[in-house]
Amino acid sequence: MWRMLHGPHPEAVPALLARACTLVGVLDIAAGVFPRFRHSRLHHMAEVLPGSFGSFAAALSLSAGILLLLLAHGLRRRKRRAWHGAALLLPTGAVSEYVHRHSIVGVLIAVALLVPLLRHRGEFTALPDPLSRWWALANLVLTGVGSVALGLVIVSVHTHHMVGNPSWSDRLEHVLYGLFGFEGPVHYTGNASWAVGFSLGALGLITAITTVYLAFRAGQPAARLTGEDEAQLRALLEKHGARDSLGRFALRRDKAVVFSPSGKAAVTYRVVAGVMLASGDPIGDVEAWPGAIERFMGEAKAHSWTPAVVGCSETGGEVWSRETGLEVLELGDEAVVDVKDFSLSGRAMRNVRQMVKRIERAGYETRVRRIRDLSDNELERIRRAAEDWRGTDTERGFSMALGRIGDPTDGDCLVATAHRQDDEPGPYGDLKAILHFVPWGTDGLSLDLMRRDRSADPGMNELLIVAALQAAPELGIERISLNFAMFRSVLARGEKIGAGPVLRAWRGLLIFLSRWFQIESLYKFNAKFQPRWEPRFVVYADAWDLPRIGIAAMQAEGFVNLALPRFLHQRGAELAPTG
C-alpha cells in the first residue's frame, strides 16, 4: 500500500488502485459466500478490509465486494464516477469498521487506499461513455444471471445447516424468491437462514439498483452526424475526396466526427465497447491531419477510450504513428481495378469471361446508372430488394459501407442492376441483383454493397462488376475499388512453393476461419479481376489492445450483434452492406 503512496509513476496509480479494489472485492465476496472461509486464516486478514463491517454482515460484505469489483473496472479506465464511488465507499467502510468492530487496522487499510485515491484524483478525469438504454436491459440480464448463479452457490454451501436434502429445483426456487426478498422452500437451522436470506436479498438489491441507475441516468446521444457536420465533410470530400477510396464512407450517419482547429481536416469514428474506432484516413488536407488527430486523441483520453484506426492507407498509418506514437500493423489489401487496363480477353480472365457469357445467354441484362437518374418507383424497389436480400439478421458494414441507398444527397452514387424477365415475376419484377458504388473523387468508384436474389443464377456479382467496368469510360470513371481482403499477402504467399511452415500454418488458420468470415473467398473473388493491391493497416496503442479492438471492429461491422432480432425492426430501416 505504501508503494502506492510514494513509488509508482502517476500513470500507474489507477491500475494499482484497481488491482487493490479487485483483491478486496474478491476477499469480501468469499467472506460473504463461504462459511468455511470465515474461519480460515485468510478470513482473519479479510476481516480488517473495508467493506466487511463485522461478522454478522455477510450480506453487506458480499454487496461491498461486488461494488468494489465494479468500481475496479472504472478506476482502471480512470473514470471520474468510479473515483467518486470509491472515495465514498472507503471512508464509509472505515467508519463501519471502527463503530462495529473498533478495528484500527481496518481503518488504516481504508485510509491507505483512500490517501493515494485523493492524492491522484487528477488522474481520474475520464468522462462517461455514450450510453444507450439497452445497457440497462443488458445489465438486468447479465447481472440477474450472475446473481442466480452466485445465489445457488450461497444456498448450497450451507449444507450442515440445511434441513433435509432439497432438490436443485427447490434451491433454484429459493434463490429466485430470495432475490425478491421472500422466503423460499429451503430451510436452515440456526442463523444460516438469516445469512442466506440477507445475501440473496443483497444480490437482488444490487441488480435492481444498477439497472435502475443505468435506465434513468442522463445518457449521452449515440454517434450521429449532424447536418452541419455532414455539410462540412462533403465540402472536404469535394476538395480532397480523390485521395482515399474510403473517404465517402465517412458520411455514415452513425459516426461522430472531430475536426481540426482549422476545419480543414476531420476524423470520423464510433465508440464500440470502450474502443474509439476510426476507419480509413482522416478527411481533408493532409497538412491539417495532425490537428484532427490531436483532437481525436484528446477525446479518447477525456473518456478513457482505447484509440484505434482500421483500414487506413500507408500514408495514413505513417501520419498516425508519427503524431501519436501508436503502432501500425498491416491488416490486408484493397483490390483496385484500373479501368483502362481491364479486359475480358486473355487466359487470366477466362473463368470470368465464360461465366459472364453463360449468364448473358440465360437472358440476363445489366443496367448501370447514377442514383439521380432512377425513377422514384424503381429506387424504392431497389431499396426493398436490397433489404430483403440481405441474407443476415444484422446489418453489416462500417469501414467500407455507407449504410443507405437512394438518399437525396447521394445522387452521384452509382447502382448496377441485373434483370431477367420470368414467366412468374417476383415481388421486385425483373430485378435479380444489385451492386451499389459510392464516388471516389470525381473519377473513381468504391464498392459499397452486393445483393442478389437467392433464386438467381450464380455469378451475379461478377456480371455486375464487369458491367460497371465496361460502362465506366462513358461515366468518366478511371478506377474502381472492390472488396477489402484481410491478410491477403499471407494467403498469396502461403500457397506458393517454398513457403515456410510458419507461413503455411498461418494460412491454414485463415482458411479455417474463412468458414465464418469469408477471408479466403473474398481474396479469391477479388483476384479474378486482376486488380492492383493497396495495403491497408490497423493503428493501435498496445498489442494487448488488439483482441479488444478486433472484437469492437467485428461489432461495428456487424459480425458480432447485440441488436434486436431482424423481425422486430421496421421494414423501412436504413440499409447497410454485406461487407
UniProtKB/TrEMBL annotation:
<protein>
    <submittedName>
        <fullName>Phosphatidylglycerol lysyltransferase domain-containing protein</fullName>
    </submittedName>
</protein>
<dbReference type="Pfam" id="PF16995">
    <property type="entry name" value="tRNA-synt_2_TM"/>
</dbReference>
<feature type="transmembrane region" description="Helical">
    <location>
        <begin position="194"/>
        <end position="216"/>
    </location>
</feature>
<feature type="transmembrane region" description="Helical">
    <location>
        <begin position="134"/>
        <end position="157"/>
    </location>
</feature>
<feature type="domain" description="Lysyl-tRNA synthetase N-terminal transmembrane region">
    <location>
        <begin position="12"/>
        <end position="212"/>
    </location>
</feature>
<feature type="domain" description="Phosphatidylglycerol lysyltransferase C-terminal">
    <location>
        <begin position="234"/>
        <end position="540"/>
    </location>
</feature>
<keyword id="KW-0812">Transmembrane</keyword>
<dbReference type="Pfam" id="PF09924">
    <property type="entry name" value="LPG_synthase_C"/>
</dbReference>
<feature type="transmembrane region" description="Helical">
    <location>
        <begin position="54"/>
        <end position="75"/>
    </location>
</feature>
<feature type="transmembrane region" description="Helical">
    <location>
        <begin position="105"/>
        <end position="122"/>
    </location>
</feature>
<keyword id="KW-1133">Transmembrane helix</keyword>
<keyword id="KW-1003">Cell membrane</keyword>
<feature type="transmembrane region" description="Helical">
    <location>
        <begin position="12"/>
        <end position="34"/>
    </location>
</feature>
<dbReference type="InterPro" id="IPR031553">
    <property type="entry name" value="tRNA-synt_2_TM"/>
</dbReference>
<keyword id="KW-0472">Membrane</keyword>
<dbReference type="InterPro" id="IPR024320">
    <property type="entry name" value="LPG_synthase_C"/>
</dbReference>
<dbReference type="InterPro" id="IPR051211">
    <property type="entry name" value="PG_lysyltransferase"/>
</dbReference>
